[in-house]
Amino acid sequence: MGLIRFSQRKLIEAGCDEAGRGCLAGPVFAAAVILDPKKNIKGLDDSKKLNEKARQELRLEIEAKAIGFAVASLSNVEIDKYNILKSSFMAMHRALNILEVRPKLLLIDGNRFIPYQNISHQCEIKGDARFQAIAAASILAKTYRDDFMEKAHNEYPMYHWNQNKGYPTINHRKAIKEFGPCKYHRMTFRLLNEQLNLF
């Protein structure tokens, strides 16, 4: 059973999703994608179910075939200022701000959203595994964020971001304990497990 191509056929709809909400370091990225009903993209799925090679190949196809797409982010400093939930929604808003085609309906992955301008939206739990437009947005958000973390890894290789992408792995937390946090870490997050002491 494949993903649903469109939730309806009357309105131009954009799928929105984010990547990096659960990370200890780096920005949160969000994407908005308007798919073309005349151009099929095979293999669209939740980015978490795809390997890196498949995500990168689909990203190129999405960017080539979509009617419109946009990717935006909020830095770790902004996340510390606004909190991660609000930052996720703000990143989606930023992506929608630069989307060249204006949608009439937004499909949002998850169960909450801050309304955007006067555009209708519907929240879809596990939407990235159900709707193609949200899956496409999840792939763009994930691949753009991974690219950012690969570059950040070159600055701070001790955190192994080329492998963990900023998520709270054992190696990442061990490195924080050994070297302390850096400019990309989210200081409002629990960077270490309770049994470890940062200072």
User: At the fourth CATH level, what is the homologous superfamily?
Assistant: Ribonuclease H-like superfamily/Ribonuclease H
**What percent of residues adopt helix (DSSP H or I)?**
25-40%
Distance between the termini: 51 Å
Range of strand content: 15-25%
CATH architecture, by name, is 2-Layer Sandwich
What number of structural domains do the residues give? 1
| Alpha-carbon Rg, integer | 17 Å
Question: How would you state the average pLDDT, rounded?
Answer: 94
Number of helices: 6
Shape from CA axes? globular
Order of helices and strands: EEHEHHEEHHH
The parts where pLDDT drops under 50 for at least 5 residues are 195-199
Plain-language structure description:
The chain is of the alpha/beta class. The chain has one domain (13-179): 2-Layer Sandwich (Nucleotidyltransferase, domain 5), CATH 3.30.420.10. The protein is built from six helices and five strands, in the order ββαβααββααα. A five-stranded mixed beta sheet has the order 3-2-1-4-5. Helix 1 (52-65) crosses helix 4 (132-155) and helix 2 (76-82) packs across helix 3. The protein is globular, with a radius of gyration of 17 Å. It starts with 12 loop residues before the first strand and ends in a 20-residue tail after the last helix. 41% of the residues are buried. The model is unreliable at 195-199 (pLDDT under 50).
